[in-house]
Amino acid sequence: MASTLTPSGWTVEPDVVDERDPLPRLTGAQITALNARIAAGSNEFPTATAIIRSDDEVVFLKQGTGLSARFEAAGNDATALKKTEAAATDGATKIGTPTGTVQDDLDARITKTGDDFLQDGASAIGAPVLLKLKERVTPLDFMTTAMKSDVRGGAPVLDHTLSIQNMLNSGEKTMDFLRWQYNVDWGNSGHLATFTGRDDITLIGRGALLKNLHSFTLDNIAAVFAASNCKRLTIKGLNFEGVPIADKSNPTTGIGYRGASFLYLTNACEDVEVEAALKYLRYGVVAGSYSNGALGNNKNINQKLRAFECGYPVAHYLSENVGLDIVALSSHRASYLAGVKGIHGQVLCKDQYIAPIQVLISDALVSAGVSRGSSDVALKVRDIGSTIFIPNSYLCAISLSRVDPGTVYENIKIESTLTGTDTIATTMSPFALYSAVNAALPGVYPFDWEPTIYMKSIDVTVNCDRSAQTVAGPTVGGDFYINTIASGAHFATVSDFRLRANMRTGSGGNPRSLYCVVPGLTDGVRVEDSNFTGYAMEYLSNTTAPITFVNCVGMSATSSFAGETSQYRFINTDTSSSAQPTANATFVQSKVANAGVITKTVIRDITLTGPSVTSANFIPAGSLIRGVSGRLKTAITGASGFQVGVTGGLTRYADLSLTAVDSTFDSRNMLQAEVDNGPRYTNVGTGLIVTAKTSDFTGGVLRIAVTYDVMGVPS
């Protein structure tokens, strides 16, 4: 086919792609005659051969068409042309250049730097062809012919490290890995490529795989890509596979302690996008440092990672605005987020090795004696079927790394979801907030907590379903465990806690109690819309800061702490056990062991006909009537108005000469004597009677609402 691009000075034959046409200056008639002989079946040339030429007197003998065409320069004199004809006549099976087809060779031989490339479209501006070609480079641009064949074969065996490094160090901004697999090995330390102060780097993978066959033996960060002080770095669709760790649970050389790292960010990198499938690494994306705060301050990092046997798919220290879309199968920690300002997204994880917390939110070292807690978090975490887990571990936790004064955790919202069975997440708990610093750093801090550690505006939702579990669950901590005290006056300062717990137990014995221990609470804990059926909750604060349960059901005893004086508020809450600290409790529309007051409202539509209509058992037995109200839904006909009451008091609740649609009555229309006597109890089911005034009803519908209290009997 004819090329859509014709550089100045070239002519293009039909059925040839990007061919610049070179033959000696034969006349048009001579070329026509030669091609006519070929078309007629002359045995001087192979089938589908054509003679073409260019104005600069270069001759080509071309065989084949389209992208598969091959061609050979024949020279600029008759002798060269004769040699070419002789080669063809001798039965040469290959006519063309030594290295490939038109697509491979012509494109590679553009040397006229003055030729302009012009993109289709209005207002496009021409650019030198070489510069246009260099806008995007590939590893193949830095490979020998043998290496290219090795890669394109689909099962490469050669080492492509140097070619990859040459491309990455070329200074070009866009690098395309062309979906192939490449073998790399940069040793036991250092990085495959380092970007320092470089901006606008884009690595396009298209599903390409970097495969590393090196087994790492050092406890270090040996990264595929290391970026320092870079902005606008994008890695998309580029995957990595390392060497599996044989002993995954080894506490010093197992998952999370050995292996390559995919991307290492330091020194205030910004605007980073990573999308990759990662297999057999130590870290996926690691930003900053556990021990050196100066390496942090990386910002605006979005990660979409699918990780298998990766110790830490993400680990961030002192980062800001971190986006997570993580699926982690078999990890040390699915996510480690320390001193991060701004976390959003979700983490799905399965199977846990070594560390007792899958998703850890912690603090990070800024400088000696100064740490920063995490803040502005909106994170969802879900276990997706862990059959390998640490006994009495946690799916998600807020846990201190240090007890440096002034460390603040603030504005954190977490939803943690877990389904446990006899084989899945059996003793893993959904959530915890605690400190084990003394165990991790013995002798560094005297206590796990101090009042100079602040927990502010923490909002936690726990979804735990153990309904199919027949064996015991966690025996330490619990499915919901919050403990902010070490001992005595060594506790965190806590404010604005909100909790939700949707719990379902199985037949595996009584579950361990849910704990909320916050003696440093300054305002209150609010527990909302929770189902505690089958669980006890142990709560401890102080004499002034209450815990308030709103719209909760199924909760058994709320405290067993000796001498505890915590304050309780129960609002529209069913506490299923009578073992409540009632001396310090206030109950509003709540029940304790089924005892308590519940307010209900019943609404009925009554069709009006005849002298009166009775709606039987409108008010149940044992009710305290709060009030009766109503509205005409359909206009009254026949009568001049209506009365509402009971047997022996037909006008107790209303006596009105109203007939129009939307006419209403309420407690203001009650008899004065009824108001004076106060609310009335009924000990039997009572019907409401609507009586016609003046004459019988012939039509109309009256909607009536009765509001009453029901007193429960203690179980």
Short key terms for the protein model shown above:
Pectate Lyase C-like, seven-stranded mixed beta sheet, 49 strands, mainly beta, 715 residues, elongated, 5 domains, disordered N terminus
**Number of domain units:** 5
* Tally of separate helices: 8
Helix share of residues?
Answer: under 10%
**If you consult CATH, what is the topology of the largest domain?**
Pectate Lyase C-like
DSSP strand count? 49
Q: Could you say which structural class the secondary elements and strand pairing correspond to?
A: mainly beta
What's the end-to-end separation, in Å? 90 Å
Q: What is the average of the pLDDT values?
A: 83
- What is the strand content? 35-45%
Low-confidence runs: 1-26, 54-58, 74-103, 105-115
User: What coarse outline follows from CA principal-axis ratios?
Assistant: elongated
CATH architecture of the largest domain: 3 Solenoid
Query: Class of the largest domain in CATH?
Result: Mainly Beta
| Rg result | 40 Å
Sketch the major β-sheet: 29 strands, parallel
Would you write up a description of this structure?
With about 725 residues, the chain is mainly beta. The chain folds into five domains: about 80 residues, no CATH class; about 200 residues, Pectate Lyase C-like (3 Solenoid), CATH 2.160.20; about 140 residues, no CATH class; about 70 residues, no CATH class; about 120 residues, Sandwich (Jelly Rolls). The chain has a 29-stranded parallel beta sheet that branches. Strands 38, 40, 41, 43, 46, 47 and 49 form a seven-stranded mixed beta sheet that branches. The longest helix is centred in the first third of the chain and has 12 residues.
